[in-house]
Design a protein that fits this description.
This protein is mostly beta strands and 244 residues long. The chain contains 2 helices and 20 strands. The strands form 4 sheets. Strands 3, 4, 7, 8, 9 and 10 form a 6-stranded antiparallel beta sheet that branches. A hairpin with a 2-residue loop joins β1 and β2. It is elongated and about 65 Å long. The two termini are 34 Å apart.
Length: 244
């Protein structure tokens, strides 16, 4: 039953996405800001194995099909992303060659990708990637890519449902946390040094907008891992986090 449902989802998605590929290098609006997209697209020179560039993965394919798409395991293959076409021109600005490409901005905590391609309506593995993995649940062979990288620690809500507050600094400090969720009392929560210079605490906060700051002694300061700023009731710079 699972296998039948899996193929049903894929088939319905392809029908909705099946159309003639346009010759364009316009950005995927779900991928990144336009200038970032253009900078990365400009580095693509030829077809080859997918590769990691910072927090982005670049996929390339030969331009031999009418339609080229890609779907990922972290989205449960519910979305087919359309490849774009990059044209290579000579000095007379005549098109000499073209290739398909797709640029993926990796979700923060994804360290390994499983994916499949859609080529003119047929699901297939990536011919440019020799690494595959058999998925027993779906009874499919998937292309696989190692995208492990160092992910900076930041204050955020994680999959466990808790908001993880992070402070990075010198070892041996006593760092406290206060905010509008404590009526700006900074003596309720103290961060624990979980590694040299890495302090953390976890709180369960309902959806809402929260202003907060870290404290050492009587001095308060904003969270350096969070760029969103606000002000405490006494007019000092603080941090803000929005919990959905």
């Amino acid at each position: 039953m699972r296998k039948i449902c899996f193929f049903g989802i894929l088939l319905s998605l392809f029908v909705s996405c099946s159309q003639t590929q346009k010759e364009t290098v316009l950005p995927d609006p779900d991928a990144m800001a336009g200038y970032e997209y253009a900078d990365i697209a400009a580095t693509i020179r030829s077809v080859g194995e997918p590769y990691l560039k910072g927090d982005y993965v670049i996929f390339t394919q030969e331009n031999t099909a009418r339609y080229m798409g890609i779907a990922f395991d972290f989205e449960k293959y519910r979305t087919i992303h359309q490849f774009q076409i990059k044209q290579f021109r000579n000095e007379e600005y005549e098109v000499e060659d073209s290739i398909y490409f797709y640029i993926l901005k990796l979700p923060k905590n994804v360290q390994e990708l499983n994916y499949r391609l859609v080529v003119d309506g047929l699901w297939t593995t990536d011919p440019e990637n020799p690494i595959t993995e058999y998925n027993e649940e779906a009874d499919l062979v998937l292309s696989q890519l190692d995208v492990s990288r160092n992910i900076p620690l930041v204050t955020e809500k994680k999959e466990d449902g808790l908001v993880h507050f992070v402070y990075l600094g010198e070892s041996g400090q006593q760092i406290r946390l206060g905010g509008n969720f404590t009526n700006w009392d900074s003596w309720i929560y103290q961060l624990e040094e979980v590694a040299p210079g890495v302090y953390q605490t976890q709180l369960s906060l309902p959806p809402g907008t929260y202003d907060y700051a870290y404290y050492t002694g009587v001095t308060s300061f904003p969270d350096r891992t969070n760029t969103q700023r606000s002000y405490s009731p006494d007019g000092k710079v603080a941090s803000r986090i929005v919990i959905d």
